[in-house]
Design goal:
The complex is a heterodimer. By secondary structure, chain A is mainly α. Chain A contains 19 helices and no strands. In chain A, helix 11 runs antiparallel to helix 12. Chain A is globular and about 75 Å long. The mean pLDDT of chain A is 94. By secondary structure, chain B is an alpha+beta fold. Chain B folds into 2 domains: 30 residues, no CATH class; 83 residues, Alpha-Beta Plaits, CATH 3.30.70.1070. In chain B, strands 2-3-1-4 form a 4-stranded antiparallel beta sheet. The longest helix of chain B is centred in the first third of the chain and has 23 residues. The radius of gyration of chain B is 25 Å and the shape is elongated. The relative contact order of chain B is 0.19. Classes of the chains: A mainly alpha, B alpha+beta. The interface between A and B is medium-sized, with 21 and 16 residues.
Chain lengths: 459, 120
C-alpha cells in the first residue's frame, strides 16, 4: 500500500508541476529547455499556490472536495494557461546546447551535495510518524475531516485548536490523501519533503540568474543543514511551507523592482495569495513584504505604488472568503485581543522586541545564517549596492519587529522561546530563511560592483 | 556535449545513484513482527502477566473487565507496540510471584502467559 501511496503522490505533484509550468509559459514564456529546467522548482511552487488556492476558495464557498475536484482544477489551470500562452504567441521552448564553464562544475558539485542530503532526508520522511504537536492536534485532523466529509465541517473545524487558521495546508493534505487513496499520514511526510525539494530548486533556479555558482551553492546547502529549516523539510505543519512561499515571493518582488518584468510580480502575487490562505501570519508577512518593496523603490514610486496597490487588492480578494467563513461561524479572529494598534502593555514592548532579536540571532535554530547575512549586508553597503541592502535588510528588520509586535500585542503570550507558549520561533523562520536567500544576492551585488569598479579603475 | 559538461553530469549523477544503492544494499526498512513484541520472562527481572492479546481496544476492554470481574486487581488494557492490544498485570516483582498469579488465574478458567515486563 505504501508504494501505492508514493505513486499517488508522484502523480499529484506532477499535476502541480504541469499547472505551474503552464502558468509560467502563459505569463513569461520559455526560450530554451535549459531555462525551463532552471525554473521547474518555481513552476512547481506556482502550481501548488494556484491549484491549492483555487481548491481552498472553492471549498470555502461550498463546492464538495473530492477526487473529481482534485483532478479538475489542475486540468482547468493547464488548459486555461495554455490557451492564454497561445494567444500571447508564446512558442514551445527549443533545445540549445549548454556551454559548460568552470562554474558549471561548481554548480554540479552543489547539486550533487544537495541531492544526497535530500535523499537522506527522504529516508526520514518516508517512514516518519505524526510526532509534532500542531501536526497531530489540528493540521492533519483538519485534512482528514476534509478528506472524509468533503467540506469544512463546522462543528469539527470550530472546535479544534487554531480554528481561525486558513485551510490551504489541510486542503493540500486532503488532496494528497485522495491521490494516495487513503489518509496515509505516514506517507504524507513525503509530500512535505517534495515541498522542500521544490523550494530549493525554485530558490536556486531564481538566484542562479544573478548569483555565481561559487556564491550560490554554499547557501543552498546551508538551507538544508540549518536545524530549524532544511532538517524540517518533512514535518507536516504549515510554518515552513509559509516561509518558502514568503521567500520566493520576496525574491520575485525584488527582481521585479530591479528589472520591472511583469511576470515576476504576477508570480509573486500568486505566491502571496497562497500565503494569506496558509496561516494567519501570512497576512502580516505579505504586508511587510509590500512595505519593504515600497520603501526600497521610493524613488520610482509612480511606477511601483500603483502596481503594489493592485497586488494588495488581489490578495485581499483571495483572503476575504475565509475571514467571512470563520466570522460567520463565530470563531474568534486573527488579530491581537487588544486590537492591532494598542498602547496597552507598554512594559512588554522592549522584552518582546528583544525576544524576537534573540530568536533571530540564535545559532541553535538557524546555525550561522544570520551573522553571515549581516556580513553580506555590510559588504553590499560598502560596495554601494544600496537598493538590495535596503530591501532585504529592511525586510528582515520588519519581520523581526513584526515578531516582536505579535508577542507585545497578545498579552496572553508569555515572553519565552518555548514553542508551546509563544509562536515567535516559528514566525522568525521566515526572517532566517529570507537571510539565506538574500545573502547570495547581496554578495553577488557587492561582487558585481567591486568587479565593475576594479575594471573601471584599470581601464 | 563538451568534456566539461560530461564531467558535470557525472559529478551530479554518481553520488545521487551510489548513495541509495549503498543504502538499499543493506536491505529495505523493516517493521518488527508481532512475535518480536513478546519477550520471555527472565528470573530476577520484573514480569508482566499477560491475560491475552486482541486486535482492538474494545475487545481489550472486554477482556480486562472479565479478568477484573473474577477478582484480579490493577489489570490494564494497553497497546503492545506491534499493532495489537494486551490485557496485562504489569510490574510483578519476580517470576515466583508471577507463577502464583498464573496458577490462580488458571483456577478460574483464564490462561495467562508470563513475559518480560517492558517497563511501561
Amino acid at each position: 500500500m505504501t508504494a501505492h501511496s508514493l505513486a499517488g503522490l508522484a502523480a499529484l505533484n506532477l499535476l502541480y508541476l504541469l499547472s505551474g509550468l503552464a502558468i509560467l509559459w502563459a505569463v513569461r514564456g520559455f526560450a530554451t529547455l535549459s531555462e525551463t529546467a532552471r525554473l521547474l522548482g518555481l513552476a512547481f511552487f506556482l502550481g501548488i499556490a494556484t491549484v491549492g488556492s483555487t481548491w481552498t476558495l472553492l471549498l470555502i464557498v461550498g463546492v464538495p472536495f473530492g477526487l473529481p475536484l482534485v483532478l479538475l482544477v489542475p486540468a482547468a489551470v493547464v488548459v486555461g494557461a495554455a490557451v492564454f500562452a497561445g494567444r500571447r504567441g508564446h512558442g514551445v521552448p527549443h533545445w540549445k546546447a549548454v556551454t559548460a564553464r568552470r562554474s558549471t562544475i561548481v554548480a554540479a558539485v552543489g547539486i550533487a551535495a544537495a541531492g544526497v542530503l535530500l535523499e537522506g532526508l527522504f529516508r526520514v520522511a518516508r517512514l516518519s510518524g505524526l510526532y509534532w504537536w500542531d501536526a497531530w492536534s489540528f493540521w492533519v485532523p483538519k485534512a482528514e475531516a476534509i478528506y472524509s466529509f468533503g467540506d469544512l465541517d463546522v462543528g469539527f473545524f470550530t472546535s479544534l485548536p487554531g480554528s481561525s487558521y486558513p485551510p490551504l495546508v489541510p486542503v493540500l493534505d486532503a488532496a494528497a490523501f485522495h491521490a494516495m487513496g487513503r489518509p496515509d499520514v505516514v506517507s504524507l511526510h513525503v509530500q512535505y519533503w517534495l515541498f522542500g525539494v521544490g523550494f530549493l530548486w525554485a530558490l536556486a533556479g531564481l538566484l542562479a540568474e544573478r548569483v555565481p555558482a561559487w556564491i550560490l551553492w554554499p547557501f543552498m546547502l546551508l538551507v538544508l543543514v540549518a536545524p530549524r529549516i532544511g532538517r524540517r523539510f518533512f514535518i507536516t505543519e504549515a510554518d515552513l511551507f509559509l516561509d518558502c512561499l514568503f521567500v520566493l515571493a520576496a525574491v520575485l518582488v525584488w527582481y521585479w523592482l530591479r528589472d520591472r518584468e511583469r511576470w515576476r510580480l504576477t508570480a509573486g502575487t500568486l505566491l502571496m495569495s497562497a500565503m494569506v490562505l496558509t496561516k494567519r501570519e501570512g497576512m502580516l508577512l505579505v504586508a511587510l513584504l509590500l512595505v519593504a518593496a515600497a520603501i526600497a523603490a521610493a524613488r520610482d514610486w509612480r511606477f511601483v505604488l500603483p502596481r503594489l496597490g493592485i497586488v494588495v487588492a488581489v490578495v485581499a480578494v483571495v483572503a476575504a472568503p475565509w475571514r467571512i467563513w470563520y466570522v460567520r461561524h463565530g470563531v474568534s479572529g486573527e488579530g491581537p485581543t487588544g486590537g492591532i494598534f494598542t498602547l496597552d502593555n507598554l512594559d512588554r514592548l522592549w522584552p518582546s522586541i528583544r525576544l524576537a532579536f534573540d530568536v533571530l540571532f540564535s545559532s541553535v535554530y538557524w546555525s550561522v545564517t544570520v551573522p553571515v547575512a549581516i556580513g553580506a549586508l555590510v559588504l553590499a553597503l560598502l560596495a554601494r549596492a544600496f537598493r538590495p541592502a535596503i530591501f532585504f535588510g529592511g525586510l528582515v528588520l520588519l519581520v523581526t519587529l513584526g515578531g516582536g509586535w505579535i508577542t507585545w500585542a497578545i498579552p496572553e503570550l508569555p515572553i519565552t522561546q518555548e514553542l508551546g507558549g509563544n509562536p515567535i520561533v516559528r514566525f522568525m523562520g521566515a526572517a532566517a530563511l529570507l537571510c539565506l536567500a538574500a545573502t547570495p544576492l547581496l554578495l553577488a551585488s557587492a561582487w558585481e560592483r567591486a568587479t565593475a569598479a576594479r575594471e573601471g579603475a584599470g581601464g | 556535449m563538451s568534456r566539461r559538461l560530461w564531467t558535470a553530469v557525472v559529478i551530479v549523477l554518481v553520488p545521487l545513484l551510489v548513495y541509495p544503492l549503498v543504502t538499499l544494499a543493506g536491505g529495505g526498512p523493516r517493521w518488527p513482527s508481532r512475535a518480536e513484541c513478546v519477550h520471555a520472562a527472565v528470573d530476577g527481572q520484573p514480569v508482566a502477566v499477560v491475560f491475552g492479546r486482541v486486535d482492538d481496544p474494545v475487545a481489550a476492554d472486554q477482556l480486562r473487565d472479565k479478568v477484573v470481574s473474577v477478582g484480579f486487581k490493577e489489570i490494564e488494557a494497553l497497546p503492545d507496540g506491534c499493532g495489537r492490544w494486551k490485557v496485562v498485570l504489569e510490574n510483578v516483582p519476580d517470576l515466583g510471584v508471577a507463577r502464583g498469579v498464573q496458577d490462580e488465574a488458571r483456577g478460574v478458567g483464564l490462561n495467562p502467559t508470563l513475559e518480560l515486563d517492558s517497563g511501561g
